[in-house]
Amino acid sequence: MRKVFIMGVLVLLVVSLGCVSQEEVPTKEGILNAIDQIDAYTYEMTEVQELVSGDGSKRTYTLYTLGGIDRKNKVFFSFGEFNASHDSSHEGTRSWGYFDGARFYLKIEKNDGGVVLTNTLSYTLDELYEETGKYLGTNLTKEEYLEMALEIHDILGNKLKAIISNSTVTSVERDGKLYVLTIEGHIEYDESPKVPQQAMEDYEKSLKRGVSSNVTGRIWVDDKMRPVKAEFKKKVRTTFESSGEGYEKVSTSTIVFNYEFALPSWVEELKSEAAEEG
Questions:
Q1: Is the pLDDT reported for residue 96 higher than 80?
Q2: In the sheet where 75-86 sits, what is the strand order?
Q3: How many CB atoms within 10 Å of residue 207?
Q4: Contact yes or no for 166/185 (Cβ under 8 A)
Q5: Contact yes or no for 91/83 (Cβ under 8 A)
Q6: Are residues 251 and 217 in contact, defined by beta-carbon separation less than 8 angstroms?
Q7: What are 39-82's pLDDT values in tens digits?
Q8: What is the C-alpha to C-alpha distance for residues 274 and 121, in angstroms, rounded to an integer?
Q9: What is the mean pLDDT of residues 207-234?
Q10: How many angstroms separate the first and last alpha carbons of the chain?
Q11: H helical segments located in the chain
């Protein structure tokens, strides 16, 4: 009986040690792969930006976004609140957007000096492509146009993945049931607006600029290496080649992710308002 008891204890120890040894410590590649495997999620993001021009003037922007995307069904929604402050002036904009895979609904509410203006509209994907696709490239197909729209609203696959890809993981630590990774990144590149019209070529060259970006932050991931929270501080210096002048933007952001996708209650209200406007 004693031998049976001892053998039982040994078996439990071996099993538990095996579980510990098989537990994966998150890696940069593992997180990027996990992001690619996610079908749907929602997120809440708060961001504060301070933009300082060459003359020393400062503008402050505050952005709040509550959104979500279903990659498989090509559905997304987004509520955004944007506030801008400069000296004594202030302006704010709120927006509600929803795309059901075929039609896009949008409501914009702008507060300009105490005057509130509201506009609600809706367009089919075909209508949007016909009206705006030509400005994004002469050979852009409707399918590519849709993928571009989805990418813009895919914060995980666009914003967060780009930051992780261009950063180095400096430490990995336990935080309760989660892991927290500290990252640092630096990139430099040239950019200019993409203007399809040949007549605008000189204007495009005049806006060519060099960009230097530094980012530091922390990312919390679960046992599936999915990001559940991220905090970043990003410092970007932009210099126009033609004049040598530029500006500096410092932004701090916090993003929280949830992997249970559900449409908010305001979606039906937005669709009803758009139908009345139409």
A1: yes
A2: 115-124, 103-112, 89-99, 75-86, 58-70, 40-53, 246-258, 227-240, 209-221, 178-191, 167-175
A3: 14
A4: yes
A5: yes
A6: no
A7: 999 999 999 999 888 777 888 999 999 999 999 999 999 999 99
A8: 5
A9: 93
A10: 82
A11: 2-22, 28-37, 125-132, 142-153, 161-165, 201-206, 266-277
For residue 19 the two structure tokens come to 């579980």
Q: What is the mean pLDDT of residues 148-155?
A: 94
Separation of alpha carbons 74 and 278, rounded Å: 24
Q: How far is CA 64 from CA 43, 61, 203, 224, in A?
A: 11, 10, 33, 27
Task: Return the pLDDT at 210.
Answer: 86
Q: What tokens were used for 75?
A: 């559905």
Q: Kindly list the domain boundaries of the chain, sorted by start residue.
A: 26-277
Structure confidence at residue 89 (pLDDT): 72
Indicate left, alpha or beta for 62 from its phi (over 0: left) and psi (-120 to 50: alpha). beta
Give tens-digit pLDDT for 123-144: 999 999 998 887 776 688 999 9
Bridge partners (DSSP) of residue 129 are none
- pLDDT over 80 at 178, yes or no: yes
Question: Is the entire prediction scored with pTM above 0.90?
Answer: no
In the numeric block, the tokens 């994004």 are attached to 136
Nearest to 103 by CA among 270, 262, 265, 260: 270
Counting Cβ atoms within 10 Å, is residue 161 exposed (0-12), middle (13-18) or buried (19+)?
middle
Q: Rounded to whole angstroms, how far apart are CA atoms 196 and 202?
A: 12
3-state secondary structure of 28: helix
- DSSP string covering 220-243: EE-TT--EEEEEEEEEEEEEETTT
Residue 192 pLDDT class (50, 70, 90 cuts):
low
Domain 26-277 class, CATH top level: mainly beta
Question: 10 Å Cβ neighbour count for 25?
Answer: 10
